[in-house]
Amino acid sequence: MQTLLFVSGLVLFLLGLFTGFVVPKLKNPRMGLASHIEAHMNGIFLIVLGLLWSFVEVSRTVETLAVALLVYGAYANWFATLLAGIWGAGGRMMKIAAPAHEGSAAKEGIIKFLLVTLSLADVVGVVIVLYGVLRG
User: Fold this and answer.
1) How far apart are CA 75 and CA 53, in angstroms?
2) How far apart, in whole angstroms, are the C-alpha atoms of residue 117 and residue 122?
3) Which residues span the domain enclosing 95?
4) Which residues of the chain have pLDDT under 50?
5) Distance CA 131, CA 56 (A)
6) What is the count of structural domains for the chain?
C-alpha cells in the first residue's frame, strides 16, 4: 500500500503541475488555480499517508477500502475543481471560488456529485487511518 500511495501522490502532484500551465486559459481561472492547489495538497497528503502507513493496523480488507477511498477523494477533488474551471461552472456548490460561474444543471450535478462523494470518502478514509494508528 505504501508504494501505491507514493505513486498516486506523485502522479497527482505532477497533474497539479500540468494544471498550473492551463490555469490562465480556463473559463474560470480561479477554479483552475484551486484545482492546481488541490492536486498539490492532495498529492502531498497521499505521500504523507504512504510514510504513515506502517503505523496503520487494520485488516487487509479495511486497509484496501481506506486507500481506495482516500485516493478517490484526492483525485476527485482535483478533477471536480478542474472541471469547474474548464466549464466556467461550480457556483452552486462553491460560491466563494466561483461566485459568478454557474453551469448547466448537468455540469453542476457532476461537480456536486464529485464534491459530495469525495468529502464522504475522505472522512471515512481518515477515520479508518486514525483508528488504525490508534490501535498500534
Assistant:
1) 19
2) 9
3) 2-135
4) none
5) 8
6) 1
